[in-house]
Structures are given as structure tokens and as C-alpha cells.
TrEMBL record:
Biased composition (Low complexity): 506-522
Membrane topology: Multi-pass membrane protein
Keyword Transmembrane in annotation: yes
Major facilitator superfamily (MFS) profile domain boundaries: 22-501
Keyword Lipid biosynthesis among record annotations: no
Main location: membrane
Region (Disordered): 506-528
Name of protein: MFS transporter
Pfam families assigned to the protein according to its UniProt record, in alphabetical order: MFS_1
Keyword terms, alphabetized: Cell membrane, Membrane, Transmembrane, Transmembrane helix, Transport
Provenance organism: Streptomyces nojiriensis
Residues passing through the membrane, by range: 21-44, 56-76, 88-106, 112-133, 145-163, 175-196, 208-227, 233-256, 277-299, 311-329, 341-359, 371-391, 478-496
CDD domains the record matches: MFS_Azr1_MDR_like (cd17502)
Cell location: Cell membrane
Length: 528
């Protein structure tokens, strides 16, 4: 029989075997949240062919993303107030209900609504994983598990498109959703059986006003970045109205949080310099990573003639590099307790990697682009898990959930901004380059073709050559923007203060605010 796991800081020793079992369940839940969008992407053409509603296609992804982003901070706070295990199990159940309903959808409207339910659950999955790990494993020991988390991320990004294509071709698109059910059931059973965390019952009430205002602010922001330059022009009334709503709701949210008894996002956590810096760096990491994941396969398919079927494998150099470097950084952090060098090194490699990718053109070989991707992956490997580790080490244990959810939220918002801004720049540059080479009319006609190797091979040589140069020019501009943004992250990393990680020894200090004396680790006091 597997021993139940007790959280870090309790009198009972945590059994390594039990920790491994719980971590396996947490990684399955994390895989569910990350794998879903990767699988659905390859199934979307088939879904539209059966359900129709092509004009609403983007909402299948947008509804999920919005629900995930908006619910993330709320799940974190609920876990802090009422107990981590219950909120995590609830989020898994909601995600599975949404998955089952999505698989049974009869039209596009139903699918969009059910995807929103699925997104609500997904918001709690990622936060739950990070916060439970924060409860169970002291920061000093947490580094050794970073490689596992990076590996799950790599598996989702590489395997998602391949699994999605295989399932859609042989079992039907509905199984792209149903596949979540057995995985989720395993995670539910394992977490229920072996995870034991203290039950909580907060005296205060949930900050409903703050949650509502935050939801409006996040929704407005995500819609601006999703619709700007695509559905609506950046200067259109719709986008400007969303910007105004976003600014006003953010201001109202910040004011409401200063008055709430149990704020959904306590502003005092941002008094920690390290936590604020990790939020900024996490935003910038999301900006670079999601932009890279989107435009690297596009470049290799359109310019280098790679097959779209194996699009996930095209990212292998970046993802393997990220996984290996994350594992090494985690081991070094665990053995030495030092971590400041990693955000600095990661920031530098992120700048160099994005700049190298910006130099790619129609003559760049797959080997060279693979090496460039490996540099970018190394930078992400130094940053991905370290940012969460330092953020969690910078708050009290009672704020572990909101710290985890805030760090996850900033990374998600960074990804939304990255995809939107890099996408806008990419589209503009492609259009301009096509017009320069073919003329406005010819460029417009060619622009209706799909940017993949099979379609390009059917085009006249002059049009194909213009297309490849246009895509190369577009990715150059997008990655150059990514490099410029990454410079900000590199600069921010130098201001990180290296505070001893909790759990560094039997009586190690939990850390101290600038110039303040630290309390013993057993008291889980605030580390800035």
C-alpha cells in the first residue's frame, strides 16, 4: 500500500515513493491541460467539415483560452482558502465534463460553449499542479523535478499534433476530446488515493467583486490581442472600446483588492521584488516561447519545404534543449541553493536565440535553423521552471496558490501578446513583400493559397519564390521583435536578489525581506 503524502513543513516525513506517485498524477493532469490545444489544432479542419460554422472557427480556441486565463487566479485563491486537494480534484472533474460534452457537440455553437467549460477546468489544472508541488516539496528540493515538468511540456508540444492527426484519421475527431477521459480518471484516482493535505476552511468570503473585475480585465486584454489586426483593425471602434474597458476594469480591480478582506489576488505579494521580477520575466518568456512555437513550423514548412504532418517534430531541437537545460538547472539549484545565474543566463540565451532566428532566410538549412532553435530552447530551459520556483519562494505558504496562479497568468498573457504582436508584424511584412515582388493584385491572388509545402509546389515558380521570401521576411520581423522584448527580460534578471531557498537545511532560514531578519523555515515565513 502506498503511503499518503504529507505536505512540506509537517511533522510526518514525506515518503519518496509517495511523492513520485503523486507527481506522476500531477504530471498527467498537467499533460491534459497542455495537450488539449495541441491535439485539437490538427483536428479542426475535420471538425469544421462536419459541424460547419467556419466563420466561428477561431472561437473554438478563443473560448478555451479566455476561460482558462480568467479562471486561473480564482482557482489559486480557492485553493488557498478552502484546500488545495479539493479544488484540484474539482478542476479535473470540470475539465473532464467539458471534454465529454465537447466530444458530443452537434454544432459549432455547442462546441464553443463546451470548450469554455473545458477551459474553466484547465485553469485549475496548471495552478493546482504548481501549488501542490509548492506545498509538498521545499523550494530547495524542487529543482530536481524541473526536468520532469519540462519533459511533459516537450511531450505535449511534440506529440500533440502527431496524436491529434492519428486520432482524427483513424478514430474520428470526437476522440480528440474523449482521449482525455481515461487519462483524467487515472489522475483522479491517484490523487484521491495518495495525496493528503490539511483541510482548510477560511473565515472570509470569496472576493466576488474582485473576481468579476479581474475576469473582465483579462477577457478584454485577451480579446484585444486575439482580434486586433485580424478580426478588426487595431484602430477600429471595437478594439479601442475593448482597450478602454480593459484599462478601466484593471483600475477598478486594483482599487477593489485594497478593500477586500480576502482579495483574489493580494497586492501585497507584489511588494516582494523577486516575485514582481519573476512575473515580468514570466510574461516575457511567454511572449517569446509562444511566438517561437507558432512561427518556427510555419517557416520550415513554407520556406524549407518540410511536411506539415510532422510539424511537432520540427520543434524537437528547441524542446530537447529546453528539457535538458531545465533538468541541469534544477539539479544545480537543488545541490547548491543558488539560482540567480539562471535567469541571467536564460535571458541572454533568449536574446541570442531570437536574434539568430531573425537572421534566417530562404538559404538557411534545416541543420542551421535546428542549432538556432537549440539556443532558444536552452534559454527557455533556464527560465521556465526557475521563474515559478523563485515566485513561490517569495511568498508565504498561505499565498502559494495565488502566487502560482499569478505567475501562470502572466505567462499566459505574455503568450497572448506575443502571438498577437508578432502575428500582426508578420502579416504586414508578408503582404508588403509580396506586393513588392508581384504587385498588389498578384500578391492578393497568391495570398489565398495555403502556406504549406504541398500547396506551394503547385504554384508558378515566380509566385512560389516570392512567397518564400515574403515568409522569410515576415519571420525575420517577428523574431526581431521577440529579441527586443527578450532584452527586457535579460535586464530584469540582474535585479533578482538571491534569497536562500526554503528547505535548504534543518534550520535554514526561509529568507528575508530586504534588510529584515528571517524567521526559521519551520514557520514558513515570507521570503523576498
Amino acid at each position: 500500500m502506498v503511503d499518503k503524502v504529507k505536505p512540506a513543513g509537517t511533522s510526518e516525513e514525506v515518503k519518496p515513493r509517495s511523492v513520485r506517485v503523486v507527481l506522476m498524477a500531477l504530471m498527467i493532469a498537467m499533460l491534459l491541460a497542455m495537450l488539449d490545444n495541441m491535439i485539437i489544432g490538427t483536428a479542426m479542419p475535420t471538425i469544421v467539415g462536419e459541424l460547419g460554422g467556419l466563420e466561428h472557427l477561431s472561437w473554438v480556441v478563443t473560448a478555451y483560452t479566455l476561460a482558462t486565463a480568467a479562471s486561473t487566479p480564482i482557482w489559486g485563491k480557492i485553493g488557498d482558502m478552502y484546500g488545495r486537494k479539493g479544488s484540484f480534484l474539482t478542476s479535473i472533474v470540470i475539465f473532464l465534463i467539458g471534454s465529454a460534452l465537447s466530444g458530443m457537440a452537434q454544432d459549432m455553437g455547442q462546441l464553443i460553449g463546451f470548450r469554455a467549460i473545458q477551459g474553466l477546468g484547465a485553469g485549475g489544472l496548471m495552478v493546482g499542479v504548481m501549488a501542490i508541488i509548492g506545498d509538498l516539496i521545499p523550494p530547495r528540493e524542487r529543482g530536481k523535478y524541473q526536468g520532469m515538468m519540462a519533459g511533459v511540456m516537450a511531450l505535449a508540444m511534440i506529440g500533440g499534433p502527431l496524436v491529434g492527426g492519428t486520432i482524427t484519421d483513424h478514430m474520428g475527431w470526437r476522440w480528440s476530446f474523449y482521449i482525455n477521459l481515461p487519462l483524467g480518471a487515472v489522475a483522479l484516482a491517484m490523487v484521491t488515493a495518495v495525496l493528503h493535505l490539511p483541510k482548510k476552511r477560511a473565515q472570509g468570503k470569496i472576493d466576488y467583486l474582485g473576481a468579476a473585475l479581474l475576469t473582465v480585465a483579462i477577457t478584454s486584454t485577451v480579446l484585444v490581442t486575439t482580434w486586433g489586426g485580424t478580426e478588426y483593425a487595431w484602430g477600429s471602434v471595437e478594439i479601442l472600446a475593448l482597450i478602454v474597458v480593459g484599462v478601466l476594469s484593471t483600475a477598478a480591480f486594483l482599487y477593489a483588492e485594497t478593500k477586500a478582506a480576502e482579495p483574489v489576488m493580494p497586492l501585497h505579494i507584489f511588494r516582494s521584488r523577486n516575485f514582481t521580477l519573476m512575473s515580468v520575466i514570466g510574461f516575457l518568456v511567454g511572449f517569446a516561447m509562444f511566438g517561437g512555437v507558432l512561427y518556427l513550423p510555419l517557416f520550415q514548412q513554407s520556406v524549407q519545404g518540410a511536411s506539415a504532418t510532422n510539424s511537432g517534430l520540427l520543434l524537437l531541437p528547441m524542446l530537447l534543449s529546453m528539457m535538458v537545460v531545465s533538468l541541469i538547472a534544477g539539479r544545480v539549484t537543488t545541490s547548491s541553493g543558488k539560482y540567480k545565474i539562471f535567469p541571467i543566463a536564460g535571458g541572454a540565451l533568449l536574446v541570442v536565440g531570437m536574434f539568430l532566428l531573425a537572421t534566417m532566410d530562404t538559404g538557411t538549412t534545416r541543420l542551421v535553423s535546428g542549432l538556432y532553435m537549440a539556443v532558444l530552447g536552452a534559454g527557455l530551459g533556464f527560465l521556465m521552471q526557475i521563474t515559478m520556483l523563485v515566485a513561490q519562494n517569495s511568498v508565504e505558504m498561505k499565498d502559494m496558490g495565488v502566487a502560482s496562479s499569478s505567475a501562470t497568468l502572466f505567462r499566459t498573457l505574455g503568450g497572448s501578446f506575443g502571438v498577437a504582436l508578432m502575428g500582426s508584424l508578420f502579416t504586414t511584412r508578408v503582404t508588403d513583400t509580396m506586393a513588392e515582388r508581384l504587385g498588389p493584385e498578384a500578391a492578393g491572388a497568391a495570398g489565398s493559397a495555403q502556406l504549406d509545402a504541398a500547396s506551394l509546389a503547385k504554384l508558378p515558380e515566380a509566385v512560389r519564390d516570392a512567397y518564400q521570401h515574403a515568409v522569410a521576411a515576415g519571420t525575420h520581423s517577428a523574431f526581431l521583435l521577440g529579441a527586443a522584448i527578450a532584452v527586457l527580460g535579460f535586464a530584469a534578471a540582474w535585479f533578482v536578489k538571491e534569497v536562500p531557498l526554503r528547505g535548504a537545511g534543518p534550520a535554514a532560514p526561509a529568507g528575508a525581506a530586504d534588510g529584515e531578519k528571517a524567521a526559521p523555515a519551520a514557520q514558513e515565513s515570507l521570503a523576498h
